Hints:
Keywords: Membrane, Transmembrane, Transmembrane helix. It holds the Pfam family DUF5819. This protein is 49% helix and 14% strand. About 2% of the residues have low confidence. Among the domains are: 47 residues; 114 residues, no CATH class. The protein has 237 residues and is of the alpha+beta class. Strands 1, 2, 3, 4, 5 and 6 form a 6-stranded antiparallel beta sheet that branches. It is extended.
Amino acid sequence: MGRTGxxxxxxxxxxxxxxxxxxxxxxxxxxxxxxxRTLAATLVVAVALCLATSLVHVLLVFLYVAPPNQMSQYYSxxxxxxxxxxxxxxxxxxxxxxxxxxxxxxxxxxxxxPDGATQVGxxxxxxxxDDSDVEHNIFPSHTTQNMLRxxxxxxxxxxxxxxxxxxxxxxxxxxxxxxxxxxxxxxHQSGTFDAVQVRVITRPIAAPSTPGAPRPTTxxxxxxxxxxxxxxxxxxx
Length: 237
């Protein structure tokens, strides 16, 4: 038998090591564990919660828009708590109720300085800002068109003239209107503030004149309403 040179021994060893490495990688790929069971279980739970929430939402909306029945009357509190104010439904798309007035909703802020003096800011017209976002916009957002307007009309329906909430829903809508005012004011001005006040100027829309009839000479009365100062909590609402 001939002798094996050092180069031949080294080459054979490298070939064996390469084969072992390939076999180890193949074994690792076969025995590689799948996703952790905790992650898989979390995904299943998340999907189940999303489906359950969707089904509950569809059911509550259906009961809200359906004709009055025993179930909708028995669970009216739960249904209203889910629907208002974010998921309110109505039939005005099919039977619109034209506005008879125009409303200009403005907000101003106040801040108490370290020396105790109160600084009151200028009025900021929220309605004008919404109108400018809608004008010349082919696809204006539903939020821009209706959020502020519906917040005020809902507040007006429940608060009356004393601006005191007499129910849990009235208090919720008061906070809703206040949060809108705080968010808009914070985006408009720099610096912090301690309280906000909302002003609503209501101008009646004149009825169309009858051909041949004299136009009314007395202008319709303009109503200006100042809401109370609402404190702003440290978290901004």
